[in-house]
Amino acid sequence: MSQAIGNTALAYARVWHHVDASDRVLGKLAERIAIVLMGKHKPIYDPAVDCGDYVVVTNARKIHVSGKKAEQLVYRKHTMYPGGLKEIPYARMMERKPDQIIREAVSGMLPKNKLRDRRLERLRIFPDGDMGTFEHNILKRWEDGTLPARSQPAEPTSQP
Fold first, then answer.
1. What's the structural domain count of the chain?
2. 11, 91, 120, 143: most buried, per Cβ within 10 A?
3. What is the CATH number of the domain that holds 56?
4. Residue 149 is assigned to a structural domain of this protein
5. Closest CA relative to residue 137, chosen from 32, 52, 17
6. What does the DSSP assignment read for the chain?
7. What are phi and psi of 139, to 5 degrees?
8. Of 10, 5, 63, 8, nearest in space to 32 by CA
9. What are the residues whose beta carbons fall under 8 Å from the beta carbon of 89, sequence distance 6 or more?
10. 73 C-beta neighbours (distance < 10 Å), count
């Protein structure tokens, strides 16, 4: 009898997903990316195990935010020196670092634990459509920004 019952190495294999961020809403896209980075789309999901996949995002400059967030959203960081608070508005951040906008949105949707940094390392973001050598790794694509539906088994045909 085989000893390989349950979760095998094939179940933990990582897949590369491609997401086109053109005309997508930032929050909804970040939520779906966080689900894939955590591995919640897999049947073997365990919160204590890092079993998520890689995600490659292209066209980060073309992402949208809803409501008045484009005028009101401000990104803050501190240099740890007195008076060292740096504030960058959304419009300037979109010009300089559009990848950082998506990275911070996804980071906020991941659990705040020791696995967070390791999961964010599997996220690759490109401001334009060119993804370089990562293009050869892609196995799944999200055409509409959502996760692909599971393939349903074919209906059994009844033969008289």
1. 1
2. 120
3. 3.90.1180.10
4. no
5. 17
6. --S--SS-TTTT---EEEEE-TT-BHHHHHHHHHHHHHTTTSTT--TTS----EEEEE-GGG-B--TTHHHH-EEEEE-SSTT-EEEEEHHHHHHH-HHHHHHHHHHHHS-SSTTHHHHHTTEEE-SSS--GGGGGT--EEESSSSPPPPPPPPPPPP--
7. -115, -30
8. 63
9. 73, 74, 75
10. 17
Helix 98-109 to helix 26-38 angle (10° resolution) is 60
Give the tens place of pLDDT for each residue, 87-107: 999 999 999 999 999 999 999
33 — phi, psi (to 5°)? -65, -40
Tokens representing 98 are 């559009």
Domain membership of residue 136 (yes or no) is yes
123 lies in some domain: yes
pLDDT in tens, 50-79: 999 999 999 999 999 999 999 999 999 999
Residue 56 CA, distance from chain mean position: 8
Q: Is 86 exposed, middle or buried (0-12, 13-18, 19+ CB in 10 A)?
A: exposed
Check: CB of residue 118 under 8 Å from CB of residue 97.
Answer: no
Check: CB of residue 44 under 8 Å from CB of residue 80.
Answer: no
The answer to the question of residue 38 being in a domain is yes
Q: Give the structural domain span for 107.
A: 16-64+98-142
